[in-house]
């Protein structure tokens, strides 16, 4: 998956960028850990 690597300069973890995107787009319902992050992004 070169797209994920190109989008997020993170380690070779196809689960890292994908989870990040879902957490940012979806509320804390999907990711309880990203509750604050989702809230902050939603406020903005």
From TrEMBL:
Provide the residue span(s) of the region labelled Disordered.
1-44
Q: Which domain of life is it from?
A: Bacteria
This one is known as: Uncharacterized protein
Give the species this sequence originates from: Paraburkholderia susongensis
């Amino acid at each position: 998956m070169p797209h994920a690597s190109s989008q997020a300069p993170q380690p070779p973890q196809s689960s890292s960028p994908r989870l990040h995107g879902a957490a940012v787009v979806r509320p804390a319902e999907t990711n309880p850990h990203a509750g604050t992050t989702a809230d902050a992004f939603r406020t903005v």
